[in-house]
Design goal:
mainly alpha, 3-stranded parallel β-sheet, Rossmann fold, 13 helices, 341 residues, binds adenosine-5'-triphosphate, binds magnesium ion
Length: 341
């Protein structure tokens, strides 16, 4: 049975960028494929402190992360849907070490996200920040996952995971790891034309990021809905004076059109035609602000209805499954590298 897998780091409050780029793609794929695929939605909690966080809040943030998966629409009663924490499946860290030893330093050094993040957090650049794409490769390869719904920013890391898997298969055993599909195939599988990148509301040439310190740049999933609407109203646009979808010259406007389409489950082309030729940025912002306000109020109501006990039960089931699959694969790899008979 094929495996589709994704996760959202629990370092900070997730944004609508995470919701649209990762949660929503995964949930629609789950609806489409859960009858004949494993749907692994895990919380990469060990990735959470590659950059500094408040550790007193981490545990609750992880539990909330699981509630978000459920509130976003994952059917927890489906036996093929598995929700688990990375930290509760020790094989992730074990495999990451082995993969480290088969990853050329130069190749890992080419990750552009490391360069960006180490500039952003220049006083706290750790080995963990450098190494996290290799732990991510372990997260994927342990489960023989083929499809990994991700935002555009993560495709370079996916490519690294593919390279590591291919290299180990060539060295040890062609059947050791299933190699995840390449970027073009992933995008097609998600029914997209290209990877999704929701932009910062302050600087729309950059992506919206949950770790950004500028609260105005992002809509977090726990934002007060009315406050979030205000952030949309003050989003950076441009001086072209006409509403067009043009990510190069009008990234702010194009970002708003994208958010409007995706949060309403509408085709982006239809939304673009609705607004074609119109000139009032204020009207567009008002519409998107209403959409965001509505979405957040509804989502937060769903989150509040999920109990901690429900989360515990889901994790217990998911982690039992994940440990079985991951330990089997880890033992196979340990045999291949010669530490187990
Ligand atoms: P951080 O700033 O902490 O790295 P992030 O917002 O980039 O936070 P991640 O935990 O790194 O979030 O990524 C989780 C998932 O969300 C990944 O699949 C990533 O591609 C997707 N994602 C993150 N930001 C966006 C965005 N702006 N648009 C679309 N998808 C996104
Ligand atoms: Mg990120």
């Amino acid at each position: 049975m094929r495996t589709i897998l994704t996760g959202v780091r629990a370092n900070e409050e997730p944004t609508i960028g995470n919701f649209l780029g990762a949660y929503k793609s995964m949930i629609s794929l789950a609806h489409e494929h859960a009858a004949d695929s494993n749907i692994n939605m895990f919380v990469p909690d060990l990735h959470s402190f590659t950059t500094p966080i408040d550790h007193d809040k981490l545990y609750d943030q992880v539990i909330k992360g699981v509630k978000y998966y459920i509130a976003a629409g994952l059917d927890i009663n489906n036996p093929n849907i598995h929700i688990y924490r990375q930290s509760h499946v020790p094989a992730h860290s074990e495999l990451a070490w082995i993969l480290d030893c088969f990853t050329p330093f130069g190749e890992a050094s080419r990750m552009t996200q490391f360069k960006e993040k180490s500039e952003e957090h220049s006083n706290a650049v750790t080995v963990g920040l450098f190494n996290y794409p290799i732990l991510m490769a372990a997260d994927i390869l342990l489960y023989d996952a083929e499809y990994i719904p991700l935002g555009e920013d993560q495709f370079q890391h996916l490519e690294l995971a593919r390279n590591i898997g291919i290299r180990m298969n060539n060295k040890f055993d062609k059947g050791l790891f299933t190699i995840p599909a390449p970027e073009e195939e992933q995008v097609k599988f998600m029914h997209l034309e290209k990877g999704l990148r929701i932009r910062s509301l302050v600087d729309p040439t950059k992506k919206m990021s949950k770790s950004s310190e500028n609260q105005k740049s992002k809509i977090s999933l726990n934002d007060n809905p009315a406050e979030a609407a205000k952030k949309i109203m003050s989003a950076t646009t441009d001086s072209e004076g006409v509403i067009r979808f043009d990510m190069i010259n009008q990234p702010g406007i194009s970002n708003l059109l994208t958010i409007e389409a995706l949060l309403n489950d509408r085709d982006i082309q239809d939304v673009i035609s609705d607004w074609a030729g119109q000139t009032s940025y204020g009207d567009l912002k008002k519409k998107v602000a209403e959409t965001v306000e509505h979405f957040l109020a509804d989502f937060q109501e769903k989150v509040a209805a999920i109990s901690d006990e429900q989360v515990e039960a889901v994790l217990q089931k998911g982690e039992a499954y994940a440990n079985t699959v991951a330990n089997t694969k880890l033992a196979q790899v340990q045999r291949a590298v010669g530490v187990r008979k």
